[in-house]
Specification:
RelA/SpoT_AH_RIS; kinase; 711 residues; binds manganese (II) ion; hydrolase; 16% strand; five-stranded mixed beta sheet
């Protein structure tokens, strides 16, 4: 059985003793934490993290990754906290373990496979440290190797997820050793019979071809030696899934696929690669159009190599790949190759931070690309995939939505549909109610609660990040404001027309055409809107309309000063009727309206001190009346002097609630040991309602002055 000491021996090849010691410490910690737990195979659980660490050791990963591998199931399975791990092993290791645990918690199985690509992105977005993914890949690889006695349907599900998500991520990161093994293990789990058949066919074909392989290999090697070129020729096997795919997708019979002999030549440097290519082309005739130079133009994940196909004896095709040792490491381990230690290296690669390493990898790709003079576009894709600026969240149905970093619930709602955004009133994130301004994180599931007739809120503009949400909110608000302004404008104009004993409805159509030209508006709605917004005076417009109606010769007509008919406000604070925050008018209070430019009508209490200045401008003041049917809540501020005692707040709160009102804000100032001043903001239905509440407060013991705040 593979033990921690075996692993430590292996690590001796590339890690300093103190780091090996730390890896061992993580192992013993995990052993204790998982004590008593067993794998399905009956082995002690800790054999699993040990095996995962061993996979990473074969890739020469750093000691923190290995420690995280040892501890990767500890948070999830044993209830040890992230903080406890941080205290024991430092924050970076705790972060890695936490990251792996988070990935483990997401189940992709029950979501649509069609979104596989988005899942890959989500996984990448959730792993701010690329090592998290590498550890997770190793974890998945060991789980796939030990699928064992699981039920076939469960096996297939895990295998499908592995194939669609993890194998692809491994491919994107260029970690091909893991990708290929994940692919073959998944294939065997999904199609056990087909895999078995291909495996047997490969074995027998290999037996038949053994002498031919050896012959080609030695003649290749001989021709290198003749030219004094350093290089090692090895035979290459196709893996099961790639054979299967060729048979399925290219409809080729097995024999034809296996008819190809594959070799790889590993050499010292790039110059040797091209020299060896020359030698090889001299030995066997190349198949036209099959040469590919991935050294000059690398693949998106950084893969570099020369590929060529040759005509062997009796026309048998021979595929040859030629690359340097470094390219070989890159082809096998991709991004992980960057954690390889060079002997005698003093500066610690991890000191730069794993992300810096990963960035270096991408930068390296960019460099290669620049030399190749190719478009940078595809490299941009790689970069975005690795360091996504985007976040990925689920809809309740399991669809994935992509949103920019910093997006909120409202952004999400609008990205689903404009109507959902406009009617959004609440939201559940992972089944818990959350504020609409909550910033989203990858992996969350969001459910938007809507109400018909609900409208966007001006305050949303303070936190939304997407252009779509922003413009949709603006559009909806503008629309709403327009409608309200037109309604108010109509009332104001009709009121101004009353002294002339006419109304909008009574005026002749023909009047409008001429009046509009004179007033420089295009439609009645535009005119009413500008009146409602306070950009135009209703009495001036009324005068023009009447003049036009009377053929323009009635300018001297005496107008009865007409403030006799008040404009009725029916409540519901909207976009063009606002209630002044200085005096908090309540239904029942005597009120006046002030038409403020661009804002519409602001309702003040008649006694409001702010009105004194405005009284010089009587044309902008309107008599107002409250509608009978008003049924809204209005804020009102009270100042109460009362004896200090325990439980006072609760007492007041109970009293207010019993009176069917709500407390919006409460603050207590201790004036002295005995007396307090309570500042209370309530929402009430109107003046009568308020009077009832004040009466109740008066009934409390030792109440002093109660003042309704006006300014
Ligand atoms: Mn695991």
């Amino acid at each position: 059985m593979f033990t921690i000491d075996d692993l430590a021996d292996r690590l001796g090849g590339y890690l300093p003793p103190d780091e090996i010691q730390q890896v061992k410490r993580a192992f013993y910690y995990a052993e204790q934490a998982h004590d008593g737990q067993r794998r399905r195979s009956g082995e002690p659980y800790v054999t699993h993290p040990l095996a995962v660490a061993n996979i990473l050791a074969n890739m020469h990963m750093d000691h923190q990754s290995l420690m995280a591998a040892m501890l990767h199931d500890v948070i999830e399975d044993t209830g040890v906290s992230k903080n406890a791990l941080a205290a024991q092993f430092g924050k970076p290791v705790a972060e890695l373990v936490d990251g792996v645990s988070k990935l483990t918690q997401i189940t992709f199985e029950d979501k649509a496979v069609a979104q596989a690509e988005n899942f890959q992105k989500m996984v990448l977005a959730m792993s701010r440290d690329i090592r998290v993914i590498i550890v997770k890949l190793a974890d998945r690889l060991h789980n796939m190797r030990t699928l064992g006695a699981l039920r076939p349907d469960k096996k297939r599900r895990i295998a499908r997820e592995t194939l669609e998500i993890y194998a692809r991520i491994a491919g994107r990161l260029g970690i091909n050793t893991i990708r290929i093994e994940l692919e073959d293990l998944s294939f065997q789990a999904i199609h056990p019979m087909r895999a078995e058949r291909i495996k047997r066919a490969v074995a027998s074909a290999r037996g038949n071809r053994r002498s031919a392989m050896r012959e080609i290999q030695s003649s290749l090697q001989q021709s290198l030696d003749d030219e004094a070129l350093k290089g090692t020729v090895v035979g290459r096997q196709k893996h099961l899934l790639s054979i299967y795919k060729k048979m399925r997708d290219q409809r080729k019979p097995f024999a034809e696929i296996m008819d190809v002999f594959g070799f790889r030549i590993i050499t010292e440097d790039v110059a040797s690669c091209y020299r060896i290519l020359g030698v090889v082309h001299n030995l066997y005739k190349p198949v036209p159009g099959r040469f590919k130079d991935y050294i000059a133009i690398p693949k998106a994940n950084g893969y570099q190599s020369l590929h060529t196909t040759l005509f062997g004896q009796r026309g048998m095709p021979i595929e040859v790949q030629i690359r340097t040792r470094e390219m070989e490491a890159m082809a096998n381990n991709g991004i992980a190759a960057h954690w390889l230690y060079k002997a005698g290296q003093t500066d610690h690669p991890i000191a730069e931070g794993s992300h810096a390493r990963a960035r270096a990898w991408v930068k390296g790709l960019l460099e290669m690309q620049r030399h190749a003079g190719d478009s940078l576009e595809f490299i941009e894709h790689v970069k975005n995939d690795l360091f996504p600026d985007d976040i990925y969240v689920f809809t309740p149905k399991g669809d994935i939505m992509e949103l920019p970093q910093g997006a909120t619930v409202i952004d999400f709602a609008y990205s689903v549909h404009t109507d959902i955004g406009n009617n959004c009133i609440a939201c559940r994130i992972d089944r818990h109610l959350a504020p609409l301004s909550t910033r989203l994180e990858s992996g969350q599931t969001l459910e938007i609660i809507t109400a018909p007739g609900a409208r966007p809120n001006l305050a949303w503009l303070n936190f939304v990040t997407t252009a779509k949400a922003r413009s949709a909110i603006r559009h909806a608000l503008k629309h709403q404001q327009q409608a309200e302004a037109i309604m108010l404008g109509r009332r104001l104009l009709n009121k101004a027309l009353t002294p002339f004993e006419t109304s909008l409805e009574e005026l002749d159509e023909s009047v409008f055409g001429q009046a509009f030209r004179e007033l420089d508006v295009t439609s009645l709605d535009a005119l009413l809107e500008s009146l409602g917004l306070g950009n135009r005076m209703a009495h001036v417009v009324a005068r023009r309309l009447v003049d036009v109606a009377h053929g323009g010769d009635q300018r001297d007509q005496v107008i009865t000063e007409g403030n006799d008919k008040a404009v009725v406000i029916s409540g519901s604070e909207g976009m063009v009727i606002n209630f002044a925050r200085c005096c908090h008018p309540l239904p029942g209070d005597p009120v006046v309206g002030h038409l403020s430019v661009g804002k519409g009508l602001v309702v003040h209490r008649s006694e409001c001190r702010n009105l004194t200045d405005l009284k010089n401008d009587p044309e902008k003041l309107f008599a107002l009346e409250w509608s009978e049917s008003i049924d809204d809540d209005f804020p009102v501020a009270l100042r109460i002097e009362i004896e200090s005692r325990r439980g006072l707040v609760a007492e007041l709160a109970g009293l207010v609630t019993d009176a069917d009102a709500n407390i919006e804000r409460i603050g207590i100032e201790e004036r002295d040991a005995r007396l307090s001043t309570v500042n209370l903001t309530l929402s009430v239905k109107g003046r009568v309602h308020l009077a009832r509440i004040i009466k109740r407060i008066r009934n409390l013991p030792n109440v002093g002055k109660i003042t309704r705040m006006a300014n």
